[in-house]
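Hi R.,

As promised on Friday, here is the backbone we talked about, encoded as structure tokens. Could you run it through your design pipeline when you get a chance and send me back a sequence?
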């Protein structure tokens, strides 16, 4: 059985060593060959060694735009499977990471003892992997849209509400009647189970329909 060689980039010493312990206990075919606290340190090593899997924290120091980092790593190191160790749950955020080339997302609050080894093996096998709570979040988002009948117009209105547009401005932006906009507000309140328009954005963020504020 071929050994899967792994590099870890995580800002916390305890996290790095905890990950190393879990991986070494889980399977003898998995081998962490290097660990780093910053991307800059790791890049030189990645240039000089061919590795199979990169586990990368999404809140590295001096790395404000993790999505661009993932895109760069994906383009630069062909054949390396990238698994993001995530600190926040949001389906749009996770989707953007996957679009940039990540092959897996493991939420750090999931049970890492049960998720790390399957994530590594799944990605090494050429498939995508989402840890349980990340996968459940996508299911919840689809369920909200399907069961409550939210369509693309509803979601467009939601995004403009988040940006601070009032109903009249939204109607102009989307070429809708004001009556239709108010009807969509009602559908959003019902779908998100809130009473007032002011509660729509907070609830939509909690359910993953909008990004959390930076």
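Update: got your reply. Pasting your designed sequence below so it's all in one thread:
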């Amino acid at each position: 059985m071929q050994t899967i060689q792994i590099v870890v980039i995580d800002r916390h010493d305890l996290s790095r060593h905890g990950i190393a312990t879990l991986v070494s206990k889980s399977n003898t075919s998995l081998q962490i060959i290097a660990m780093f606290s910053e991307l800059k340190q790791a890049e030189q090593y990645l240039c000089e060694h061919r590795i199979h899997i990169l586990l990368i924290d999404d809140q590295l120091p001096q790395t404000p735009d993790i999505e661009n980092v993932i895109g760069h790593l994906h383009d630069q190191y062909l054949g390396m499977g990238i698994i993001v160790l995530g600190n926040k749950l949001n389906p749009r955020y996770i989707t953007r990471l996957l679009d940039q080339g990540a092959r897996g997302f493991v939420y750090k609050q999931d049970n890492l003892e049960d998720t790390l080894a399957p994530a590594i093996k799944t990605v090494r096998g050429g498939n995508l992997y989402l840890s349980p709570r990340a996968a459940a979040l996508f299911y919840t988002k689809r369920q909200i849209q399907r069961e409550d009948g939210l369509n693309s117009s509803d979601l467009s209105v939601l995004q403009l509400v988040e940006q601070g547009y009032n109903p009249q401005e939204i109607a102009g932006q989307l070429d809708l009647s004001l009556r239709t906009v108010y009807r969509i507000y009602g559908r959003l309140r019902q779908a998100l189970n809130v009473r007032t328009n002011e509660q729509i954005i907070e609830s939509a963020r909690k359910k993953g329909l909008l990004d959390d504020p930076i």
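One thing I noticed while checking it: The first helix runs from residue 13 to 26.

Thanks again,
M.
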